[in-house]
Amino acid sequence: MIHIHSLTFGYPHTAPIFQDFNWDVQRGETWAILGSSGCGKTTLLYLLAGLRLPTKGVIEIDGERLKRPRPRTGLILQDYGLLPWATVRENAGLGLQVRDFYGADGKHAPKNFQPDNDVDYWLKKMGLVEVADKYPAQISGGQRQRTAIARTLALSPDLLLMDEPFSSLDAITREDLQHLTLSLCREQALTLVIVTHAIEEAIALGSKILLLDSSPRVFENPHAGEAGHRNSLEYRELCELLWGEMRNEERVTRNGK
User: Fold this and answer.
1) Among candidate residues 12, 36, 9, 11, the one with its CA nearest the CA of residue 23
2) The domain 1-72+160-257: what is its CATH number?
3) Phi-psi region of 103 (alpha: psi -120 to 50; beta: other; left: phi over 0)
4) Residue 92: what are its φ and ψ, rounded to 5°?
5) 210-246 burial, b if ≥16 CB within 10 A, otherwise e?
6) Domain spans in the chain, listed from the N-terminal domain onward
7) pLDDT 10s digit of each residue in the chain, 257 long?
8) Paired residues of 76 in beta bridges
9) Which residues, listed in sequence order, are joined to residue 183 by a DSSP beta bridge?
10) DSSP strand E in the chain: where?
11) What is residue 131's DSSP assignment?
12) Beta bridge partners of 23
């Protein structure tokens, strides 16, 4: 699904964030990207979305080199990205309207694109029917995030990128949306890559966890999403391991060694 080879990227007048970085993601996997502030989590997501291009190296998705945003990749941002003057229904259908405008040209929409379900289906699926005619300022943070998810899934993506989507929500709403996200990924056969700064969330969502630091590593977490996983010894041990790894990295960075 995703193949990154010898990726180098940095912003002007700064040291490279990624240098000779390699990473592979198989179709249907759920990945959490974890790391301290400034390590490149969101930058990696933007590279996968085609919003940034590598200085060197290659990013391939589904065997094609990524040179621009890909129509079957969905990106959900932390601030929801909703139009304040549009209703929930209008926001949920915005992507489909854009695709209708351009047509199935292979750039803005996949060729021969036909959505799997209409907007009403996703409003019902996301529990938004009762607020469909309200505006973003009139609904809760959880409902706004559900609207953003509905808008993205209406476009029938096969790759879902999420940038700290639940960080501003209360604990109960956050956990409910985490469960919903994993359920939708299984149901829609989506590959998920989610950026988070929270270790607990990474372990709850990612069957594999990419820890970005001076030496990026992958941690296996095969029981993510299973009932009772959050209360298991395996969950607690992985939490402690990742806390220790991140503390050590912070100590190394602070000491400049």
Assistant:
1) 9
2) 3.40.50.300
3) left
4) -65, -30
5) bbbbeebeebebeebbeeeebeeeebeebeeebeebb
6) 1-72+160-257, 85-156
7) 999 999 999 998 888 899 999 999 999 999 999 998 888 999 999 999 999 999 999 999 999 999 999 989 999 988 888 999 999 999 999 988 887 766 666 666 667 667 667 899 999 999 999 999 999 999 999 999 999 999 999 988 999 999 998 888 888 998 999 999 999 999 999 999 999 989 999 999 999 999 998 889 999 999 998 888 999 999 999 999 999 998 887 766 666 64
8) 162
9) none
10) 2-9, 18-25, 30-34, 56-61, 64-65, 73-76, 159-163, 191-195, 208-211, 217-220
11) G
12) 4
Q: Which amino acid is at 101?
A: F
8 A C-beta contact, residue 127 and residue 176: no
Q: Measured between alpha carbons, how far is 224 from 98 in angstroms, rounded to an integer?
A: 35
CA dihedral 209, 181, 191, 86 (to 10 degrees): -120
Task: For residues 254 and 121, give the distance between their C-alpha atoms in angstroms, rounded to a whole number.
Answer: 50
Quickly tell me which residue has 């890909």 as its tokens: 70
**pTM to 2 decimal places:** 0.91
Work out the number of other CB atoms within 10 angstroms of the CB of residue 191.
Answer: 22
